[in-house]
Structures are given as structure tokens and as C-alpha cells.
Amino acid sequence: MHLSEEDIRRLARLARLDLPASEIAPVKDKLNAVMALIESLQSVDTASVQPMSHPHDPVLRLRDDLPDEADQREALQAPAPLLQDGLYLVPRVIE
To answer: What is the pLDDT of residues 62-82, one digit of tens each?
Structure first.
């Protein structure tokens, strides 16, 4: 695909970019180079390539899921004015 100067003006308008006339030619050349790279990548046959989720297959270090702090719920809820079944009671805001 080859982009024309009119295509560049249209893209700039769609992207709401104020592209001066002096910038149209360099932008066109750069975008055409990107499009050429994309076309060359699309021409590669990848039918026999297995997809991979990560290039390095990392090994996760797992640890036991054990608590590392003592339960302080009672001490932390002691200053609360109203509690019920371990939950804070607050005034109703929405009716």
C-alpha cells in the first residue's frame, strides 16, 4: 500500500492534527516506510510456527500461602463506635 499526500492530509484531519504543508512529504515518506515494513512482515509464512505466550517460559517461584501477621481485627475495631458481627455500622446515606 502506498500512501499519497491526499491520504496524509485526510489522516491528519481525522486525527485532528494540524500538519503544515512542509511536513506532509516527510510524514508521507515515514508512513510509507512503515507500511512497507508491515507488508514485508505479512509476506512471511507463519503457518508452521507455534504460538507462544512468552518468549522465555518463566518459572514462577511459588511460596506457601501462610499468614505472616497475627490477627489484629479485635484490637483495630475496638475504637469503632458501632460494630455488628465484626462489621462497621455506618449511618444510611441513600434512601
So the answer is: 888 888 899 999 999 999 999
